Amino acid sequence: MNHLCPLCKTSYPSDINFCVKDGARLIAENATADYNNPEIHNPFERQPQNGLPYNKASIGNRFAAILIDGLIFIGLMIPAAAILFFAFIYAYGNKEEIAITLCIIGGLLTLIPIAFQLLKDGFKNGQSPGKRTMKLMVIDLDTNMPCTRKKSCLRNVIVLLLGFIPFVGSFIEPVMVFATIDGRRLGDRTANTMVIDKSQYFN
Ligand SMILES: [Zn+2]
Questions:
Q1: Helix, strand or coil, per DSSP, at residue 193
Q2: Which among 56, 76, 86, 194 is most buried, taking Cβ atoms within 10 Å?
Q3: Distance between CA atoms of 24 and 20, rounded to whole angstroms?
């Protein structure tokens, strides 16, 4: 059975494990989303013990990536926060029209960090800036391809929604990452994605 590149669809002899064009880990040519068949999805290494084709990424790297992306999120939030602060000052000084205008501008500017939070895993190779730094990536388990923007929105909107649950909401996803055998938080389970070490997919 030949090996196929999941990215560029080039076919290779079965003794070649990585694509020479883009470095992607090759899969068996007629691979399907049958994770129970180790020959199809991970013919090159010992089958991970989590029933999935990939091993759980290092927790330390995972949280470092979250920290980096979190700092970027806060950085992107600063302009909106500054403008909303001035809106408050003008409202306090009874300059209502200026305050309302600044509120609208500040509200629109918050869309930038929110868009970052939603889309961050959907660009090149399923890597947010934090994941790129920590050599992690998000894989779409439906297609065995790097995470798409749509899947990135799905896995990350869950984080935003859980944030609305008072007190415990923000802790649910980190606990899921830490405590589960595959490191898949609720967002990953919703989108059928997984965070993996990039070396498991690209060489
Ligand atoms: Zn390729």
A1: strand
A2: 194
A3: 8
